[in-house]
Design brief:
With 408 residues, this protein is of the alpha+beta class. It has helices at residues 5-10, 19-23, 48-57, 90-95, 101-111, 139-144, 175-187, 189-194, 209-219, 254-259, 313-324, 338-341, 343-361, 374-378, 383-399, and strands at 28-32, 38-42, 62-64, 71-73, 77-79, 81-87, 117-124, 127-136, 169-172, 197-201, 226-233, 239-244, 249-252, 283-287, 290-291, 297-298, 306-310, 328-332, 368-370. Helix 5 (101-111) packs across helix 11 (313-324).
């Protein structure tokens, strides 16, 4: 098991979660590398205790999911309840991604004083294509940050600065971010008290910030002319929209922005991910697309709606409170319908074991997963898919240079 974080960096396995900066804030700082991803830069050697803690929380070392008496779906993992819904605020439902259910839930937590703030990412004021970690403490903050951000983010990088006092926070992050924080809470009593609620969303991978630059080129827009950039604006699924400094706007469809552009810029670690659906979160939100006549997701513009998947009783109780207070409109959802409208998640889970086997055969490091259902999913893959993904990973690993990283 690759406990040496420098090896994870050298092999391109880093997820960019910011866990290094959370564990060793005096040594690690998250910076954008030449490929447009956030990676830790170290100013000193890590102490053995820091190395050990990082090996315990790093999602690229490994992840273990436990059922703990919950329902278990072979594709989507353990859960307590599955519902579909949206924000009861019509403006927020239209502005936010997926019907605003995530934003509506966060607003309910703030209004009911269940938390003092929400740790999440928002657009970098100095670079509209990039992200920064922030803490929202008001309804206005939450509404202003609504919408998907398809760019690198390291939301754990802020945790050390929030220590002290009695404040409580909800945390919103990618599945790998939540996995790292879930593990960190087992190692750090103060962090466990400080962040009682973990929220995630379905993630198809982290694209480089260069993906946003590709979108701007597609729009014939110079980065220096952009005042604001939204990956999914106004409606569902929404359009990638650049607002220029002169007030004009340029946009392209979701299929053009994600499907044809950003998906081609996803980092290496995401192609080895066993958890695109946030199995370590209390609550997970996702696009609950409508399907066409062939069962494939339809991206035609329509009123937004979200899957709301509660993975813990704690999450379920808080979602029910948001529904009772009028922030969310929810109804039961049959998880068996989700595989057809989230085909990318399903496909990656089926072939992941073949990809990991290829890396094992070549003696290259890879994340070690337990309780993630990889054998069950592999049995659902076709032989051709297994062979193609095994061979493809062999080829990519052979061509992939090992980077020099340090110090660590």
């Amino acid at each position: 098991m690759p406990h040496d974080i420098s090896k994870i960096l050298a092999e391109g396995l880093c997820a960019g979660c910011g866990g290094c900066a959370a564990v060793a804030p005096s040594a690690a700082r998250m910076e954008t590398d030449k490929d447009g991803f956030l990676r830790p830069r170290f100013s000193r050697e890590l102490h053995p205790s820091e190395q050990f803690k990082l090996s315990r929380i790093c999602p690229s070392v490994g992840q273990e999911s436990l059922r703990r008496g919950r329902k278990l779906d072979p594709i989507w993992g353990p859960y307590v309840s599955a519902e579909i819904g949206f924000s009861n605020n019509k403006a927020l439902r239209h502005r936010a991604a997926s019907g605003g259910a995530l934003s509506g839930f966060l607003i309910s937590l703030i209004k009911s004083q269940q938390v003092d703030g929400v740790i999440h990412v928002t657009a970098d004021p100095l670079n509209p294509l990039a992200n920064v970690t922030t803490v929202s403490t008001s309804i206005r903050d939450i509404r202003g940050a609504a919408g998907s951000r398809y760019a690198p983010s390291s939301p754990l990088d802020i945790l050390d600065s929030l220590r002290g006092g009695a404040r409580r926070f909800a945390f919103v992050g990618k599945p790998c971010d939540v996995s790292a924080l879930y593990a960190l809470r087992q190692e750090d009593v103060e962090i466990a008290r400080m962040v009682p609620i973990l929220v995630s969303f379905f993630c198809a991978g982290v694209p480089s910030v260069q993906g946003g630059q590709d979108i701007l080129r597609h729009m014939s827009v110079k980065p220096s002319d952009v005042a604001q950039f939204q990956h999914r604006a106004e409606g569902w699924p929404g359009r990638a929209t650049a607002t220029l400094k002169d007030g004009t706007q340029r946009s392209i469809s979701y299929e053009e922005s994600w499907g044809a552009t950003l998906s081609k810029r996803v980092q290496h670690r995401c192609k080895l991910c066993a958890d695109g659906s946030g199995v370590f979160a209390d609550v997970v939100f996702a696009d609950a697309w409508q399907s066409d006549a062939h069962g494939y997701p339809s991206f035609d513009d329509q009123p937004g709606q979200s899957l709301v998947l509660c993975r813990t009783q704690e999450g379920h109780s808080r979602v029910k409170a948001a529904q009772l207070s009028g922030h969310l409109d929810l109804s039961p959802y049959d998880l068996t319908a989700l595989a057809d409208v989230q085909p990318g998640q399903t496909r990656r889970r089926r072939v992941l074991l073949a990809r990991l086997a290829a890396l094992w055969l070549m003696g290259r490091p890879f994340p070690r997963y337990r309780g993630m259902g990889l054998w069950t999913m592999a049995r659902r893959a076709s032989v051709s898919d297994i062979v193609r993904n095994f061979g493809g990973m062999i080829r990519r690993a052979s061509q992939r240079p090992v980077k020099e990283e340090g110090p660590c």
